[in-house]
Write a structure and sequence with these properties.
Layout lengths: L2 E5 L10 H10 L4 E4 L8 H6 L6 E12 L2 E8 L6 H12 L1 H14 L6 H8 L6 H10 L6 H4 L20 H10 L3 E4 L13 H9 L4 E5 L5 H14 L2 E4 L19 H10 L6 E2 L5
Parallel strand pairs: 1-2, 2-3, 5-6, 6-7
Antiparallel strand pairs: 3-4, 3-8, 4-5
Helix pairs in contact: 5-6
Length: 285
């Protein structure tokens, strides 16, 4: 089995529609794909309706968290999307996205960059607007060559010239909320230093004690030595190890199935989850 547990659609900051995502996942030879849009489950129904035969969909979300000023992302799988507390927290995070993005556009214009809110809104479409859409606008304008460059320290990264903080959940609270909704939690790309500051391994140990289920080890932003170190840490802490592409369509260079999760780990994730179940494809539209 080929299992990719981290992919985004245009319901957040990917470029594929949910239907296109699952079709592309099947074409890439995947057996299982997780739709983990940022702080939203809005694409799940469309993905399930289009699910090709032979492909299983894992419904999830990537939750925006922050601890001691450090941004963190928590992958949540197979939770009850209607559970009131977790739903309210996701809505609170999403509601803060537009004013934050508008503030970053204003900062860019103050630096002489001719970006407009209309341009960013067009790129975001129906998705939850965020930094990747602003990064794409900077690429369109020729200010930077790539989205990754836009996330460098000079621009959109934490502490960059146009960075604006927003509401993000305490990760310990996020774990509690996901668990209460019957879900499973995995710390996404925990050592992706190119994205900015990362939490120390002692914090990962504290999160494990608080109920964290696993860490995403095999990821494009982790060098081989980092993956080896994280694999050892996971063994020490009794955490599951996942691998994922973090696919965003054409917005990033990663491809579906670039990194995958061991079938036994996937089986353990589904065993632990009580809020929802994977959806097997029967030949969607």
């Amino acid at each position: 089995m080929r299992i990719d547990l981290h992919a985004h659609s245009n319901a957040s900051d990917g470029t594929d529609s949910p239907a296109e995502l699952v079709r592309n996942a099947a074409a890439a030879g995947l057996d299982v794909v997780a739709l983990t849009d940022h702080d939203t489950t809005r694409g799940h129904a469309a993905a399930a309706a289009a699910l090709p035969e032979g492909l299983t969909l894992v419904a999830g979300a990537e939750l925006s968290c922050r601890l001691d000023g450090i941004s963190m992302h928590l992958l949540a799988y197979l939770f009850d999307p209607a559970e009131p507390e977790l739903l309210a927290e996701r809505e609170l995070i999403r509601d803060d996205r537009v004013p934050r993005a508008r503030s970053m556009v204003a900062k860019l214009r103050g630096l002489g960059v001719p970006v407009t809110w209309e341009q960013v809104a067009r790129i975001a479409g129906d998705g939850s607007v965020g930094r990747p859409h602003i990064a794409s606008a900077l690429v369109e304008l020729g200010v930077v060559d790539t989205v990754s460059e836009a996330f460098g320290g000079d621009w959109l990264a934490d502490g960059g010239r146009v960075f604006v903080p927003r509401h993000e959940t305490d990760p310990f609270a996020a774990i509690r909320l996901v668990k209460a909704a019957g879900g499973v939690t995995v710390f996404a790309h925990p050592a992706a230093v190119k994205r900015g500051r990362t939490v120390p391994e002692a914090v990962i140990a504290e999160l494990a004690t608080a109920g964290l289920d696993g860490i995403e080890v095999d990821h494009m932003d982790h060098e081989p030595a980092t993956r080896a170190r994280l694999r050892g840490l996971a063994a020490e802490l009794g955490l599951l190890v996942t691998g994922s592409s973090d696919y965003h369509g054409s917005r990033k260079t990663c491809v579906l199935g670039e990194y995958t999760t061991d079938p036994e780990v996937y089986g353990e994730i589904t065993r632990r989850a009580t809020g929802a179940f994977p959806v097997p494809g029967t030949g969607g539209a």
